[in-house]
Amino acid sequence: MARIPQGGAGGGAGASGWVKVVDIATPAGVVSNKVWQDAPNNTILQECQVTDLDVEVSVRSAFPKVDVNGTAAILPQSADGGHYEGDVAVTLVGAGAVSVKSETPNGLLGAEDTVQVNFEAPPEILTLSFVGGYPGSQTELKAGDTFQLSGTTDKDADGVQIQNFGALVQSLETFVSGTSFTITGTIADRGNVAQLLSARARARDATTGAYGPVRDTNVGGGGVNGTDVVNCNNLYPTASWGSPTYPGVQQALKGSEVSNIPISTANLDSILFDSPTSELNVTNPTLAEPTKTVTRIGGSYNVSTPNLRATANRAANDSTTVDTVVVNIANVAAQVSMVNPATRFRSGGNDGTSIQNHNIQLQSNQQLLSVPSASAEAGGGTFIGSWAGGPSNWTRTLQVHDDDTKGDYDWHSLSATNLAGIVTTTFTGSTQYTLGGFVARTLTFSPFATTTSMDVEVVDFSKLTAGIFTSTSGTALKQPIGTPPSVTNGYTIQASGVKPTTLVWLDTPAAGANSSGTAQITNVQETV
Questions:
Q1: pLDDT score at 12
Q2: CA 232 – CA 116 distance, rounded (Å)
Q3: Which of 47, 160, 162, 299 is in Cβ range 3.0-4.6 Å of 116 for a Cys bridge?
Q4: CB 400 within 8 Å of CB 345
Q5: Identical fold at 13-119 and 125-232?
Q6: What is the pLDDT of residue 16?
């Protein structure tokens, strides 16, 4: 219900209207042991128990003006317009009756309702202090460390709520109900400057679950370290690697080569350098130096897994910083293969077509130090541009012309240098590629001609296809080499493996009707 503005005004009912206490709540405490006049409807409260004296009394009345224990209020009208209802905030002086009176429209005393409110104070912490001492040999505490609290209460409690205050973060620590406790709190991050901080907590009633007042460990201004306050400092050591250096122009180590790696350190008492992959030997592994020297002692290839580690420790709060870096290793030659985009590379460039570009990939199982080189066999197409990409996958365009001789070829002249300077000159896997087939073109027949020429070689007659004959709009039907005319919409070639290729129009009536020399056969191609 909405809070009620202050002003002038079962339960009781009669000619003077009616009024009733619907419920009682306490924002800071717990209400329990409610007794209702109209159970099980539970709309008229007769008695309850509270753990806090600041309460809100929920009232319904036939008239808007009410008085609750001397606090006058005006109730808002209900949503259905049939009565008035709202919450009236009052502060009780202790256990006793809460009286609600209504006022009639003519200012006379109306109906009255009374609720018996019993008061049971929640447990209060009587003593509270840090106990148990600092972890290990620490003299400071960092976030996440723990420290014990011990205390007593004036009545049974089954839990203590540590507040997010001072040295500790908020938590609820439960225990077997009683009047003494020892619990564990978690240290908060209060910055990286040492400061003596207290803790704050409140106890929970074992029966009602209500919380009592808070208490600090340094009540009265106590300053004993480890009892009233603890020393908090979230300062961590610094250990931060820079970029490794390598011999000459290399970007990795091989053999027993050495790398130097800069490292920034601060706020530490000890440091340890090691290789988690056992690939490196570290010079002076317990000495903080601006540059650390390492020697390769193992590993074939590593450019991604951290293999050098610095572990720095600050003793006061036992804080540790770990930083890792990858010192590249490439102790074996790269394996390089060529990836062909198709089983055959088709050609173009004659008969109104374009030279065909094929995207060739050079793949390495390692990153390469520089742009690799590889060439096509003489006559097997022409590389244009340069190898592009990297660091392990590279591409280049191979152009294939109708004038290039069809057949099988090999990739040649590989040179690929890995990050440690080891050169690969032999391909892994097949080096062969094939020039075969050609892209679609449209051929025109001279007047009355039954043959036409295309300036490209047919290698595999079974893959030769065509579209239509424009003079008949009929689908071009391929016939075996040597088929005699006449075949409606039929075509064939005189021979494969020759250039230029003669295409034969087997439909002699259609050819004889081509007096204008405009008849064509479309989409003649040899597929992949």
A1: 58
A2: 49
A3: 47
A4: yes
A5: yes
A6: 84
Closest CA to 257 of 146, 395, 421: 421
Task: Name the token pair of 32.
Answer: 């329990």
Cα distance between residue 133 and residue 339, in whole Å: 68
Classify domain 238-330 at the CATH class level.
mainly beta
Residue found by looking up tokens 């929640």 in the block: 122
Tell me the C-alpha distance between 94 and 46, whole Å: 17
Six-digit token string for 381: 């197409």
CA distance 57 to 70: 13
d(CA 191, CA 84): 54
pLDDT, tens only, 196-236: 999 999 999 998 899 999 999 999 889 999 999 999 999 99
Q: Which of 195, 198, 190 is nearest to 231 (CA)?
A: 195
Amino acid at 313: N
Q: What Å distances lie between residue 159 and 77, 181, 223, CA to CA?
A: 43, 9, 26
**340 vs 156: CA distance, rounded Å:** 82
> What kind and span of H or E run contains 375?
strand 373-376
User: Both tokens of residue 453?
Assistant: 């020429």
Beta bridge pairs of residue 171: 162
d(CA 266, CA 263): 10
- What CA–CA distance (Å, rounded) separates 229 from 219? 10
CATH number assigned to the domain with residue range 13-119, chosen from the 4 options 2.60.40, 1.10.12, 2.40.30, 2.20.28:
2.60.40
CA 228 – CA 130 distance, rounded (Å)? 6
Give the Cα separation of 242 and 291 in Å (integer).
9
Structure-block tokens of residue 145: 């460390």
Outline where DSSP puts E strands in 163-307: 171-186, 195-197, 200-205, 215-216, 230-232, 238-241, 258-266, 270-274, 280-282, 291-296, 301-302
pLDDT digits (tens, 9 = 90+) for 30-65: 999 999 999 899 999 999 999 999 999 999 999 999
Region of 219 on the Ramachandran plot (φ > 0 left; ψ -120 to 50 alpha; else beta): beta
pLDDT above 50: residue 5:
no
Q: Are strands 146-162 and 200-205 parallel, antiparallel or unpaired?
A: antiparallel
Q: What are phi and psi of 462, to 5 degrees?
A: -65, -20
Length of the chain: 528
| pLDDT per residue as tens digits for the range 463-476 | 999 999 999 999 99
Query: Are the beta carbons of 331 and 419 closer than 8 angstroms?
Result: no
CATH class name, domain 125-232: mainly beta
Tell me which residue has tokens 């679950």: 209
- Vertex 253 angle, CA 296 and 426, to 5°: 125
Could you give the residue ranges of the DSSP H alpha helices within 367-464? none
Q: Domains of the chain: which residue ranges?
A: 13-119, 125-232, 238-330, 336-430, 445-526
DSSP state of 511: H
Both structure tokens of 365:
């199982």
* Main-chain dihedrals φ then ψ at residue 463, nearest 5 degrees: -100, 5
- Kindly report, residue by residue over 225-276, the tens digit of the pLDDT: 999 999 999 999 999 999 999 999 999 999 999 999 999 999 999 999 999 9
